[in-house]
Amino acid sequence: MDVCPSCGEADSGDASCARCGGSLLVDVVVEFSPDERVRFNAAKAVSALGPPAPAFAGAKSIFSRPGTPIVRGASRAFARRIAEALQPLRLKLQTRPAETVPSRAPVAALAFVVLVAVAGGTGFFLRGRRPAPVDTPTPAPQATAAAPAPKLDRKKVQAAVVQLSCRDQLGSGFFIEPTRVLTNAHVVCADDAPVKVSLPDGRSLLGKVVRRDDWLDYAVIEVSGADNAALPLGDSTSLAEGDPIVLVGSPHGLSFTWHEGKVSYLGRNHLGIAYVQLDATVNPGNSGGPLVNARGEVVGIVSMKVTTAEGIGLALPVEYVEPPEGEALDRWNRLLKRVAGENEKAVADATAAFDRPSVVGVEPNEHGIVVTLVLRAEGMAAPTQNFDVDLIAGDWECRDVLPLDRWVSIEDAMPEHLKKSEQKRELDWMLRAKTFKDVKAAVGLVPFERCDLKSLKSNPELVLVDGMPGRDRREVQRAWLSRIRPQVHVEGYGERVDSRLRDAWRTNFLSARSRVESARDELDAARAAADTSATRPGEAAARVKNAEDRLRAAEASLANLERTAASQGVPLEWRR
Q1: Rounded to 5 degrees, what are φ and ψ at 241?
Q2: What is the DSSP string of 168-196?
Q3: Which pTM was predicted?
Q4: Distance CA 32, CA 63 (A)
Q5: What does the pLDDT look like over 441-469, one tens digit per residue?
Q6: At a CB cut-off of 8 Å and minimum separation 6, what does 406 contact?
Q7: ∠ CA(343), CA(415), CA(100), 5° rounding?
Q8: Alpha carbon distance 347, 270 (integer Å)
Q9: Which residues contact 292 (CB under 8 A, 6 or more apart)?
Q10: What is the DSSP letter of 40?
C-alpha cells in the first residue's frame, strides 16, 4: 500500500495527505535518454494513457532530455500505469515528490493527530453509542457479589425507564415527572432533533429536548401525553462504598434490562466532575439509565464505562441536575471542593507534560521512521530545526537527526477537529484548562542511513535526546527497519541538473515565504483600518477575516513545502 512520505499515512489518492498535509503527488522521471526507436515507442505508450500524460510530440521531446519529468504532480497510481506501459521497453524510471505543492491547507490535521495521541493518557472512559445488532435476546448478566440484592419494587422502577433512539444513537432514560425524562446529553441528537421514546407498556412517543448540558452530559426531554409514573430523586452523598445499587437500561439493545451492583467509590474525579463509581457491567445502551439506591430513589445517571478495566462504570450524581438542600447541600459542597482540588492537580500534571519535547508516535516508512513530537514553546517560531534521536537495543546504539522545520499550534487547530475525536471530552477538558497553550506539534522522518541496521538482533527503542522523561521513547519494530530503503537520488544529471534543482527549491521557498509576509502585511493593514473611524465596522471585520484566511492558507502552503522537502531529503541550504 502506498503511504504518505511525510507521515506514513495510507495514500488516499488525494492531492495531499489527510493526516499531515504533505503532498501525495509525484513527478515521474526517466533516468537516461534511449535511442530514437525506443523514444518513439515510449512516447506512443505514454501518450496513449491520456492526461496528465503529455501528447505524443511532447512525450517524444521529454524522452530525449533525461531528468525532465514525464508527468508532474501525478498520483502514484498513475505513476504505476506509466511504469507498466514502459516496462517492455526496459526504461529505468524514478518517482520523486512533486515540486508543485497542492494549494490545499490541511495544517490543522497534523495537530488533530497529535491531540488524539496526547490525550490518550488522560482519559479512560468511553460512552456507549450505537449498539451492535442483536438477533436473539439473552438474559442480562447478574452481579456475582455475595451481598443480598436490594429490596425494592422492581416493577415500579422498570415502569419508569424508557428506551431512547435518535437517528443511529440508542440509549436509556427515566421519568422524573409524568411527562419529563432525564438522560445523557450524548444519547440525544446534537441538533435536538425529536427523540423516539419507547415505554415499557408498549407505547412509542416522540420527545423534545427542553434542557441539556453537554459538558455535564445530561438532557431533559418533554414527552407530551406520556402521563407516566416517575422515580423520586435521592441523595448520592448518603451513599457509601459497598452499598447495593441497581441499573436499568438497554445494553446492546436489550430493552429494560435489570442489573445489580455496588458502589465502589463516591466522588471519583474525571475531568473535574465528581462521579459515583460502581462495580457493575455497563454496556452501550445503558447510557442515560437510572442508578437506583436500595430505597428506589435515583442517585445518578449511568454515563460511561471504564474501558481499561472490567465491570467498572461511572454515573453522574443527580445533584448536578437538581441541587440538594440542607445537610445534603453541605455534604455535596465538601465533595465538590475535594474533587476541584484533585482536578487542579490533574491539570498541573497534564500541563507540565509538555514542558519538554515528547514523542507521541512512531510509524514505519519505506525511507525511515516517522516521528511525531509535541513541545511547549512561546510564539509561533519553530522551537528548533533538529532533534537528536538514539536508536538503542541493549549494547547496540546509533544516533541520527530528526529534522523538524515547521511546527503547528495545537490550540489553534483544536476547534476545527474537536468534533471528530472519540476523545472529545478529554480534549475539551484540556482546552478549557489551557493545557495546550503554546504547545506545538510536528512530524519528521529519521532515515537512519548512518546506522548498521542489519546488525540489530531485537526490537530497539527510539529515544529522543533531552526529551520528557517517561515520554521520550517509543519501541520500534525491527521489521520496520528491515524494510527501509535508502533515498534514491537521480544520477547522471551532473552539476547542471543539481544546480537547477537547488535553484528551483530556493525559488519555491522564496515565493512561499513572500506570500506569508505579504499576507501578514495585509492583515496588519486590515487591523489598523479597523481601529479607525474611516471604515464601517462590518466591512472592517470582513477585511480582517479575509486577511486572516489568506495568512492561514499561505502558512499552510509553506508548511506543505517544508514537509515535502524534509521527506525528500532536500539539503537545508536549499530551503533558505
Answers
A1: -55, 130
A2: TEEEEEEEEETTEEEE-TTTS-TT---EE
A3: 0.56
A4: 8
A5: 888 888 887 788 888 888 999 999 888 88
A6: 382, 442, 558, 559, 562, 563
A7: 135
A8: 11
A9: 150, 152, 157, 231, 245, 246, 247, 248, 298, 299
A10: H
